[in-house]
Amino acid sequence: MAGFVYRGLNAEGATVEGRITAADETDALRQLESQSIAPFRLTLETPASRKFARKKARPADRHRFIRQLAVLLRAGAPLLDAFETVSSEEPCRDLALEADGVRRDLRAGSRLSVAMKTHMDVLPDYAPRLIELGEATGQVPKALSDIATQMEHELKSAAEIRNALAYPAFLAVAGGVAVVFMFLFIVPRFAALIGDDRTALPALSRIVIGLGVTMRENLPVTLVILLAIVGGIVFLLRSRKSRAAVGRALYGLPVVGSFLRSAEIARWARTCATALSGGAPLLEALILAEGSLQSPRRRQGLAEARRAIRAGEAIDVALRAHTDFDAMTINLVRTGRASASLDEMLAFLADLHEEEARNRAKRLTALAEPMAVLFIASVVGLVVVSLVLAMTSLYDVAL
């Protein structure tokens, strides 16, 4: 089935336009005729000719796309029909263009795993391999469903991290705006009252007033610097490499690091469990799971553990020797290995660490809020104290 965009006259002679789904152009004309519409333009809809709700595809859009595709395949729809149905209704331009490329490769006889790896390279690293395993075992719908479930867990984990840091970040931004406002508008007013002779002022007052006057007198330069700082922060948040670098730096912080550690172990366990349940061998599942980690130290430790497993060590022994996983994690992995249910035990382990990450996020938020308020209050208070000292010192001089 394909989409066709039409423009024509209805039975009342009014101009109408719209979109219909048909097997070919003849079928589209037949449908329009049954609706008493005389088309004077009928074109095959392509991603380039469609109107989209937005251009960029978000991770949530890719998750929705994979989930819908899995549902259609589980319902018995042929692969090409299911893919065309989902892609023809896709509201994101980038994702629609990628889907159109996959659809062309499928029509040419390519396998789904190869086509998606070629055109949808933004998908997680484990997605093409799980689809390939599903093709080998005849379980493509299950593979897509497992991928969608894993992506859903990753989206929830990312949302928890954002929510934990959102309010402290808001307080920091609001505090920064308040401080800049004081330096640009309030401090220069005090400077005008004091005059140019500031030799009698305390050192703190001279520094604060001098900084405020400099910022006010060089307002264009100040605005450029502030815009550059804001632009740099936005760039860091938008760049995947920069976000990864910031994430690695946060691992060293006491409270934040423990929260990120729990979230990362949960992500590793979930990815490994998904790969094992999809039919991947243990070593390959470990390789796929390593790609979900951001901490270089933990990734290196898991790589060393994987080499030890290849040399014949048990997975729990290798993890204990080469990683910083806690005793509960190691014991659950050993239990899963001994009972030949490692994938189920890893999924259970992921649930435990996700719950632990949620609890740590609540504690982090509860701790970060007063710390952010205290920091902002300290900066504002420092400015106020410096101005008060300036006024009292002038009063003493006058006496």
TrEMBL record:
InterPro entries membership: GspF/PilC, T2SS_GspF_dom, T2SS_GspF_sf
Keyword terms: Cell membrane, Membrane, Transmembrane, Transmembrane helix
Protein localization: Cell membrane
Domain Type II secretion system protein GspF: 65-188, 268-389
Pfam families with a match to the protein in the record: T2SSF
GO biological process: protein secretion by the type II secretion system
Residue spans crossing the bilayer: 165-187, 219-237, 372-395
GO cellular component: plasma membrane
Membrane topology: Multi-pass membrane protein
Protein origin, superkingdom: Bacteria
Family: Belongs to the GSP F family.
Protein name as it appears in the record: Type II secretion system F family protein
